[in-house]
Amino acid sequence: MADLSINLAGIQSPNPFWLASAPPTNSGYQVQRAFEAGWGGAVWKTLGEPIINVTSRFAGLTFGGQRVFGFNNIELITDKPLEVNLKEMDETKKRFPKHTLIASLMVEHKQEAWHEIVKKVEAIGVDGLELNFGCPHGMAERGMGSAVGQHPDLIRQQVEWVKEVAQTPVIVKLTPNITDIRFTARAASQGGADAISMINTINSLMGVDLDKWLPIPHVDGKGAHGGYCGPAVKPIALNMVAECARDAQVGVPISGIGGISNWRDAVEFLLMGATGVQVCTAAMHHGFRIVEDMIDGLNNYLDQRGIASVMDIVGKAVPTYSDWGHLNLNYKVVARIHEETCINCNKCHIACEDTSHQCIDIIADEATGKERLVVREDDCVGCNLCSIVCPVEGTIEMVEIPSDLPPLSWNQRQAALAANGTNET
Amino acid sequence: MGVPNDLQNNFREVVPALKPKEAIDEANRCLYCYDAPCIKACPTSIDIPSFIKKIATGNLYGSARTIMDSNPVGASCARVCPTEELCEGACVLNHASKPIMIGLLQRHATDWAIQNNAALFKKGEDNGKKVAIIGAGPAGLSAARELARLGYQVTVYEAKEKAGGLNTYGIVSFRLPQEISLWEVEQIEALGVKIQTNTRIGVDIQAEELLADYDSVLLAAGMGNVPNLQIEGEELEGVLDAISLVEETKTKPLANDMVGKKVVVIGAGNTAIDAATCSKRLGAEIVQILYRRTANEMSCYQFEYEFAKQDGVEFRWLVAPSRILGENGRVKGLELTKMELGEPDAKGRKRPVPISGSEFVIEVDFVVKAIGQERHVSLIEAFGIQHQKGVVSVQDATYRTSNPKVFAAGDIIFGGGKTDAMVVDAANHGKRAAHAIHNALSDQKQPV
After folding, report:
1. 0.90 exceeded by the pTM?
2. Taxonomically, which superkingdom (chain B) (predicted)?
């Protein structure tokens, strides 16, 4: 049994799986059920001035038969008075002292307001704070959430205010609705954040009702953009985590969020620099019990590799994530089709023929009357498209073709050209 | 036809394993129901949605562990359970599309464990207590596994040469290859369980010795051979016992003496089907199942019936054997009496009534008896415990017999038409009996 406990900027947790601040962490009842199911921590649904919610609030994206492939919501922060939340948080922490309880906070842009709420939640013994600078809907129109998260200066200022009084580690939750998340991540770090978490939800319109000509979801005939999440957003989230993890100016631990549905997703986030992960949509889809396979799968993954602690894999893939200019121009792979498992759907052929480099031929075998697919390797650019569209895993393999040339990146090439140019003049 | 090599082919597993893509596709089709009906329909309560989800996430070790944790003979059950009547029959997708192939997914996960030599469990810390188990079949092994994990020193006494009971000897190879059952045995031995084979209680070791040497004894012996038909000619060469017939195909080189012959099987339970399909695969030209009632009253599973028909087995209803005819000491023919259905019996099945004067003779080369199994009455009596016609009486929840030190599980307590004697039920009994023994022995320790 591997040690699954984590330490995120001083916040201890029995395992890396936390519930993100969202509908699943709205009450003591829910969070306690989650802890019983095995979740290592929970970020309580954002505290602040209680708001009024609308109905309906959620929409799901079904893709290719998979329900909740994407998900969005127009729900806002807590609708309960602070005292009620604090009382339930206190009870929860007392019942589960070893589990991690984080308070998510969102207040208006005032130093006193931040001071006041920080003192109140720390008084009940939370393990850390998460400042919600991410929610893209509703609260942003009131100058909070992603309205702050889109302005590095506002982030820095508010983090500073929080750090003036905070006794526990401060995590800053960032919005992906921004051109380059590293700028807001750096601002959080400069303001004194102990960690950052990402991503919050992405602006989205889930769909349009073909019969009623209304947005999905709608509230009495009108809709608004909502926050997008679920498996569909994972690549966006993973990129943002990786970009921040390799940025020296960010330099603080990361709590990964965005489309994490199982232990494999979690391992990817950990390898790309997250110290732990937060989950919401998968729990909303299947209930808290999904954490059982997350823990079991992660543990077996580590055990099978003889890795003693989950902390040992954090960030292990970050050095492999770089800029295009550093990639080796002399590296080459080509597609190889394994005939024994090929089912002759010919999707690779048409993908290559219509939209790539026209190098997969359909050859009719006159002896058998059957067709087979053959890659002209000299023409193959190794784009992967055929292996991506192939429905049978492992049938199209991308094989490395050894090169006689030494590795050469674009940056090196340009530098060499410039050097030659100088010599010539 | 009929060189032994061909026959060997006939005994390869008939149901193919899922291909890797098939398994993933199927696993992703599972809805992961909450409080899933498939779990409730499984006698051993395997957390089916969980093990399927683990296949979908590539956590095959965890998947196999989830299965085997609930059912120590889960790899065998993946092949022999009547899933249509249990988990798959309960699947909510029966009403919406097609049920999930739970049995085959279970086989996919347990096959992974077998192929990867996965050690799934550890023995518990030694608690200094000893339990003897009689019978290394599904019930005995299941109990042994649980007790070993709870820290008991467990010795299993088995009359046969190998452990596994029905799974090793009694289920045709083309449904359950012997190596699957033997892997389950190895898993249990790896937990420190001692299995003493070729040992008969009452012959090699006396019941009294066990009662004196162990803190508790679990009686998990299965059933014996098929009883006699009690008709003339039973001593003739060519009269076989269905259980022994199946066992021979699993333990000896396949014989080709049935090639091209006419075989009749008496009875229409699952063992009869096994004997019939076995005979067909041993090369018999004509195989007929003779049953004194009709298809409606047969006790074999529907899928077994279909399977037998696919194999070319013929069924003759409403006939009962009245005399086996021989020539030079060998079976030559069989005299049958036509029957009709009368009033229902205690189990609600219509009673067959002979039609007098309807006797006729058919030509046969082999007569295979499959009319039930004998019970180990002498073993039960050696322990001096209460029983009814060889069915040991136990307190329902505790599996405790009339001797407080002796518990019983599996075939030895099945009976009276209460339930089918399924492998999965035996496994469940064994598991529960182990916990009952643990409770009983733990209670003793507690100060009053």
Report:
1. yes
2. Bacteria
| Interchain pair A293, B54: CB under 8 A | yes
Contacts A292 to B, Cβ<8 Å = 50
Q: Residue B447 falls within a domain, yes or no?
A: no
Q: Where are the alpha helices (DSSP H) in A70-194?
A: 82-95, 111-123, 146-149, 152-165, 181-190
Residues on chain B touching A1 (C-beta within 8 angstroms) = none
**A293 close contact with B: CB closer than 8 A:** yes
Q: Is B33 on the interface with A (CB under 8 A)?
A: no
Q: The domain that contains B178 carries what CATH number?
A: 3.50.50.60
At A181 the three-state DSSP class reads helix
Question: Which one of A135, A229, A244, A359 is the catalytic residue?
Answer: A135
B99, B91 contact by CB (below 8 A): yes
Min distance B62 CA to chain A CA atoms (Å): 6
The residue among A8, A4, A98, A85 whose CA lies nearest residue A46 is: A85
Which among B28, B47, B57 is the top mutation candidate for probing chain A, defined by the most A β-carbons within 10 Å of its own β-carbon?
A: B57
Assigned domain for B1 exists:
no
In a domain, B229, yes or no: no
Q: From residue A303, how far is each of A89, A234, B64, B218 by CA, in Å?
A: 35, 26, 16, 36
Per-residue pLDDT of chain A (425 residues; tens, 9 = 90+): 999 999 999 999 999 999 999 999 999 999 999 999 999 999 999 999 999 999 999 999 999 999 999 999 999 999 999 999 999 999 999 999 999 999 999 999 999 999 999 999 999 999 999 999 999 988 888 999 999 999 999 999 999 999 999 999 999 999 999 999 999 999 999 999 999 999 999 999 999 999 999 999 999 999 999 999 999 999 999 999 999 999 999 999 999 999 999 999 999 999 999 999 999 999 999 999 999 999 999 999 999 999 999 999 999 999 999 999 999 999 999 999 999 999 999 999 999 999 999 999 999 988 888 899 999 999 999 999 999 999 998 999 999 999 999 999 999 999 999 998 765 44
**Do the chains contact at B57 and A263, CB–CB below 8 Å?**
yes
- Residue B29 belongs to a domain with what CATH number? 1.10.1060.10
Counted across chains A and B, CB pairs separated by less than 8 A come out at 38
Nearest 5°: phi and psi at A352? -70, -40
Which of B115, B143, B166 is the last residue before a domain boundary? B115
The reply to whether residue B59 touches residue A293, judged by beta carbons under 8 angstroms, is yes
Does the active-site annotation cover A386?
Answer: no
Q: Does the beta-carbon distance from A287 to B34 stay under 8 Å?
A: yes
- Which stretches does DSSP call E strand in A149-272? 170-174, 195-198, 202-204, 207-208, 215-216, 226-229, 254-257
Record: contact A296-B20, CB cut-off 8 A: no
CA-nearest of B342, B165, B323, B326 to B232 is B323
Residue B196 in contact with partner chain A when CB distance is under 8 A = no
Whether B5 is covered by a domain: the verdict is: no
Domain boundary among B58, B87, B115: B115
Q: Which domain holds residue B305?
A: 239-369
Domain count, chain B: 3
Structure tokens at B81: 């359970």
Question: What ipTM did this prediction achieve?
Answer: 0.91
